Amino acid sequence: MSDSVGLALLVVLDTLAPNERLAFVLHDVFAVPFEEIAPIVGRTPATARKLASRARRRIQVAAPSPGTDMARQREIVRAFLSASRRGDFNALLDLLHPDAVLRADNAAIGLGSSGLAHGASAVADTLSGRALHARLALIDGVPGAVWTQAGRPRVAFAFTTFAGRITEIKLIANSEHLHTLDLVMINA
């Protein structure tokens, strides 16, 4: 269980902005005072304190539990794909955590994706009506989605969920990275 929680924390830390992550880790893990963190992140001590506080809140909200129900995650992803296909902005907002993040690798950006979107509204706006041909899949054993072209995976949608809401979506289109993923299509 300790390994699962440690891995979950790493996943959540990866969703933080670099300055948030740095302020949080330096202060909360290594007890570095905010006066010393401020010049490292190029901010005032008060702003460094706010960065760490924001990171702490996001970690508390987004940290996935090791016993998360896979069937529930699958239903969340299925509902997200359905809402995206219909262009149902409000349904997408209901499925997204207010601080949800969308990240796309450079290959996905080259295919027309936005590189980064912060907040439920921005993520919903980016993906509304865009998952027309994405199919439900398991990505390394976790529910997600895959868009294929000519039977070949082109983009993997890796979802992170917590408490029934999506906290992060990663769009992976880099062919080398796609080949390292264990992708299993699910007939929905």
Properties at a glance:
188 residues, alpha+beta, Arc Repressor Mutant, subunit A, 2 domains, 7 strands, seven-stranded mixed sheet, Nuclear Transport Factor 2, Chain: A, 9 helices, 50% helix
Short description:
The chain is of the alpha+beta class and 188 residues long. The protein has helices spanning 2-14, 18-29, 34-41, 45-62, 70-86, 89-95, 106-110, 120-127, 175-180, and strands spanning 96-104, 116-118, 134-139, 142-149, 152-162, 165-172, 183-185.
Q: Between the first and last Cα atoms, what is the distance in angstroms? A: 31 Å
Quickly name the level 1 CATH class of the largest domain.
Alpha Beta
Biggest pleated sheet: 7 strands, mixed
Radius of gyration from CA coordinates: 17 Å
Return the string of H and E elements.
Answer: HHHHHHEHEHEEEEHE
Q: On the 0-100 scale, what is the average pLDDT? A: 86
Structure classification: alpha+beta
From the coordinates shown, what is the CATH architecture of the largest domain? Roll
Low-confidence stretches: none
Q: Please, how many domains?
A: 2
Tally of alpha and pi helices: 9
**Portion in beta strands:** 25-35%
Named CATH topology of the largest domain: Nuclear Transport Factor 2, Chain: A
Question: Which range best describes the helical content: under 10%, 10-25%, 25-40%, 40-55%, 55-70% or over 70%?
Answer: 40-55%
Strand arrangement within the widest β-sheet reads: 2-1-6-5-4-3-7
The number of distinct β-strands equals 7
Shape: elongated
